[in-house]
Amino acid sequence: MFLRVLPLLRARLIRLRTDSPKTCQPGDLTLVLPSHSPLVELARTVGAGTAANFADQVDADARFPHEAVTQLRAHRLLSCYVPQSLGGHGASLNELAFMCEELGKHCSATAMVFAMHQIQVACLVHHCHDDRHLKAYLAQLTQNQHLIGSVTSEVGVGGDMRSSVCAVDVNGDEFTLNKNSTTSSYGAQADDLLVTARTSPTAPSSDQSLVLLAKGQFTMEQTGNWNPMGMRGTGSAPFKLTGKGLTSQIMSTPFATISARTMVPVSHLLWAATWVGNAVASMTRVKSFIKQQARSNPGSLPPTALRMAELAPSIQLLRTSYRYLLTEYESINADPTRYDELSTIGYAVRMNNLKLSGSQLIVDIANKALQICGVAGYKNDSKFAMGRILRDAHAAALMVGNDRILNSNANMLMILKGD
Amino acid sequence: MQDKIRKILKDHGRLAVDANSLAETTDLYQSGMTSHASVNVMLALEGEFDVEFPDHMLKRSVFESIASITSAINQIKN
């Protein structure tokens, strides 16, 4: 059935994207609610289909979700955030978030790989300015559907993304770059990479550039195992990177700016969206479980139904907290005169709060969902199995450790006057 | 004022270079000041000059150089 529907969705997408605004009819939900956008519908299809079908296998084998990512590529969703002027769909961040939710409902690893890739795309889209090399790269992305990995972690910096040991070593119009990462998600599957490094071998650790390495310009040697508790499909092992490229691949915007304006806020927003997907997955199992209980004893409310009702506000809280900040972000990002607001301490604290509260909420939700389903949720071979969801949920507080973020916020709150 | 700012940068900025050797417009972040260190610089500046930076001024561009810090303090004082 999906095969018959997908060409229609794509045709609708092309029609919508090329229509001028005046042809849009009032009340057309596709233009008002991103959840009804054709891009989100495609993500919903991939999520409920391929991603769902292989989620348990990906988790059991701790392997990359090849099947789902192949589908995302087939629908050209890896370049959906690339502006239409460069051949992409020109998706909004709001649409990306809804897509993450849809994928997260079925396979957290697929959703997180998609989210992390789009974070890299957003860094390139927001900061390529008039650089013809980077623009050409984004235009190519719409054709080759390359998966972009991120290499920000490094041995020796204690988990601080804003600090690098490695440096870009420029010689003429070429550079070399070697880096030992502690975790590089899907490092073995990434076609291209965005890597943080000091701007030169003599630069201080905080003076960083973001460097693009394209397929064929680097090798990634895995230096450790990947057999974690959850998010097993992300393949976030340590790697030794050896790369060489042209100086035109070093982004001209300092990484400090890219980090504050795009990488950190977009990461926290899209991660939160994947957690909402994960939370919805646990609620879906809970509802199905309660419904089964209700059917076995018609006319009376199952005793755990109240626990289900208690769970719903938590999911709503998680969803509305990130969407509020997403709306704010999109509003600022659309107005160059307001970019400075993204580098304020107040904004950084708010974004960090989203990561802190969201990562705690998702564990709380998944844990309560397990309690409601009881033994049926505890069994791995049950249709109410909560194991994978709960294990995946625990990654939220660890990917960029919450203590690191608390430390940062504690520091910033000392100087911040407002809340 | 600039001597006091340089002293604060020397004590709290964790710069990779001598604060006395910095030009007024040298980028402090490129000179090694981290976000964490910049907060300590802000706290010390508030104490030294008896000012309070309003939240909208607590941003990277205000603390990126000795010149921008000087301008911000003058703006608050006036």
Notes on the structure:
The complex is a heterodimer of chains A (419) and B (78). With 419 residues, chain A is of the alpha+beta class. Chain A has helices spanning 2-18, 29-32, 38-61, 66-74, 93-104, 108-127, 132-144, 255-296, 305-333, 345-373, 375-378, 387-393, 402-413; strands spanning 148-151, 169-171, 174-184, 192-198, 208-213, 218-222, 237-246. In chain A, strands 2-3-7-6 form a four-stranded antiparallel beta sheet, with no helix packed on it. In chain A, strands 1-4-5 form a three-stranded mixed beta sheet, with helices on one face. In chain A, strand 2 and strand 3 form a beta hairpin. The model of chain A is unreliable at 14-32 (pLDDT under 50). The longest helix of chain B has 15 residues, at 35-49. Chain B is globular and about 30 Å long. In chain B, helix 1 (2-12) crosses helix 2.
Structure at a glance:
The complex is a heterodimer of chains A (419) and B (78). Chain A is an alpha+beta fold and 419 residues long. Chain A has 13 helices and 7 strands.
Q: How is this fold's topology laid out?
A:
The complex is a heterodimer of chains A (419) and B (78).
Chain A (H helix, E strand, L loop, with lengths): L1 H17 L10 H4 L5 H24 L4 H9 L18 H12 L3 H20 L4 H13 L3 E4 L17 E3 L2 E11 L7 E7 L9 E6 L4 E5 L14 E10 L8 H42 L8 H29 L11 H29 L1 H4 L8 H7 L8 H12 L6
Parallel strand pairs in A: 1-4
Antiparallel strand pairs in A: 2-3, 3-7, 4-5, 6-7
Chain B lengths: L1 H11 L22 H15 L16 H12 L1
